[in-house]
Amino acid sequence: MCIRDSESPLGKVLVGVKVGEVVRVNAPRGVTEFRVLRVE
Questions:
Q1: Which residues contact residue 21 at a Cβ distance below 8 angstroms, ignoring those fewer than 6 apart?
Q2: Which of 6, 23, 24, 29 could cross-link with 11 by S-S, CB 3.0 to 4.6 Å?
């Protein structure tokens, strides 16, 4: 997944996250987890 906008809801969660970290996002259908694999 490519996030290009740091102002989007998911982009805001990912600001400052490092490779290998897992983030949890509160989505309309519940909590979703993402692991950061790469930062470009």
A1: 35, 36
A2: 6
Q: How far apart are CA 28 and CA 2, in angstroms?
A: 20
Higher pLDDT, 25 or 22: 22
Angstrom distance (rounded) from CA 35 to CA 38:
9
Sequence-ordered list of residues with C-beta below 8 angstroms from that of 37, at least 6 positions apart, any chain: 19
Q: How many Cβ atoms from other residues are within 10 Å of residue 3's Cβ? A: 13
What type of residue is 4? R
Q: Which long-range contacts (CB under 8 A, 24 or more apart) does 34-39 make?
A: 34/1, 34/10
The whole-model pTM stands at 0.64
